[in-house]
Amino acid sequence: xxxxxxxxxxxxxxxxxxxxxxxxxxxxxxxxxxxxxxxxxxxxxxxxxxxxxxxxxxxxxxxxxxxxxxxxxxxxxxxxxxxxxxxxxxxxxxxxxxxxxxxxxxxxxxxxxxxxxxxxxxxxxxxxxxxxxxxxxxxxxxxxxxxxxxxxxxxxxxxxxxxxxxxxxxxxxxxxxxxxxxxxxxxxxxxxxxxxxxxxxxxxxxxxxxxxxxxxxxxxxxxxxxxxxxxxxxxxxxxxxxxxxxxxxxxxxxxxxxxxxxxxxxxxxxxxxxxxxxxxxxxxxxxxxxxxxxxxxxxxxxxxxxxxxxxxxxxxxxxxxxxxxxxxxxxxxxxxxxxxxxxxxxxxxxxxxxxxxxxxxxxxxxxxxxxxxxxxxxxxxxxxxxxxxxxxxxxxxxxxxxxxxxxxxxxxxxxxxxxxxxxxxxxxxxxxxxxxxxxxxxxxxxxxxxxxxxxxxxxxxxxxxxxx
Length: 468
Ligand code: MCA
Ligand code: AMP
Description:
By secondary structure, this protein is α/β, with parallel strands linked by helices. The chain has helices at residues 6-9, 26-40, 54-66, 79-89, 119-123, 155-169, 186-199, 211-217, 226-238, 240-246, 261-271, 336-342, 383-391, 426-436, and strands at 15-19, 22-25, 45-49, 69-73, 94-96, 108-110, 135-141, 149-154, 176-179, 202-205, 221-224, 251-254, 276-281, 285-289, 303-304, 309-312, 319-324, 331-332, 349-357, 363-368, 373-376, 379-382, 396-406, 410-419, 445-448. Among the domains are: 6-204, ANL, N-terminal domain (Rossmann fold), CATH 3.40.50.12780; 377-464, ANL, C-terminal domain (GMP Synthetase, Chain A, domain 3). Strands 2-1-10-9-11-12-13-14-15 form a 9-stranded mixed beta sheet. The protein has a 4-stranded parallel beta sheet with strand order 4-3-5-6, covered by helices on one side. A 4-stranded antiparallel beta sheet has the order 16-17-19-20, with no helix packed on it. A hairpin with a 2-residue loop joins β21 (373-376) and β22. α6 (155-169) crosses α7. The radius of gyration is 22 Å and the shape is globular. The mean pLDDT is 95. Residues 141, 186, 255-258, 277, 279-282, 301, 351-353, 365, 368, 375, 380 line the site of adenosine monophosphate.
């Protein structure tokens, strides 16, 4: 395989990364990442404390140059998740921005982005594991129950997916990508950082996807989750000048959850642009995408990427979506049981999404097979993990967690709780969950009840819980 990030070995004369007012050209990035790669060579797996900063991007580029696997850590993980990830992934050290407190008992290496330009530093020494099968990343993702699982993504999977996306979106070195995504998930990290770096183009991380910053960025390409576009269009409707500037963007792309038809239409009205949706998963990377050259079909997530096979199983028009192709993950770290449960013998991966084909060959997603998976603001959240956290509170006898429709977040988390005696306060339970787990996993509301609806087998029937 050619190098995963060829532009670091032969730096073009261009800005690679800009975070707020801090920017690095390719030559500067190659020097900073090359110097750090020298310190990392010979390691197997390192963690990156993935604040939304230029240090995170440099740390990951360095680890990739050194052939070391990276585990990006959400800096807001709760204590339960932190303990799990360290025990599961066993990172040898943690890379972090200088001066940032890191709540991990691991050797720490600061990412220095201010180094003298020395292009040879990047290319010096062999790149020992730049082979397609070597693991690039371990990205933690929630299942329906239990703690998050680490999806192992190979260098070859990342490269293949980014190249297929480049083809779909006519994405080149001339593109300036703007986004404000977190850097510990596939969307912000693989597409949002490694995407522009693989093309030799520019990333401008905006911190927040607001109309003024976006209009000033000069972006040709924008990535976001539906919650971000929903908030953005509220601003654009009040700021026609920003809307007109953003209307000159080559492509607006949305993913991680469904963009509502209402928001599609509002964005088109404000900017004249039709948002392209694409669909993927941590385990599969991007599966389908609306193409740059096609008029997107609202309510669909586009056609399969070139080289990726997608099938709908079962006898009905709509059914479970399965995927096969070069971008599939290698498996869940330390979880052969979960890996084989998601895979068929002939190499298909069951996404858990339900879909159907439209007449034009685009995929329309109609739901998920597991009601216990919640998508809030583009984050996947397992109901079981929150229920277990609630059950650790002495005042909780039984708990059932669901996602209810929410205009801003897509779904919002609501917990139904049977108290074990006198009901604890709602705030106390929310704070209890927020201490154990990342803040986006905390319930937005707690409803106390005398009993949960159960079937004859004693299993909780969540569909019989009150809605809203
Ligand atoms: C933040 N909060 C949330 C969420 N995000 N609560 C529920 N669900 C959320 N998604 C909490 C914050 O911690 C904060 O709590 C409080 O809500 C208010 O935050 P606010 O300022 O409104 O939110 P924000 O910080 O602006 O975040 C909204 C967001 C964020 C920008 C939409 O959720 C986000 O970055 N989502 C992107 C998720 C993502 O990248 N998913 C990709 C995975 P407190 O005050 O207590 O701190 S999926 C993937 O990778 C696949 C491949 C794919 O298809 O893309
Ligand atoms: P994650 O596990 O966080 O990687 O999230 C993957 C899930 O996000 C998929 O299985 C889908 O349910 C959902 N998803 C991603 N992109 C889209 C989209 N464009 N429309 C609807 N759902 C999406």
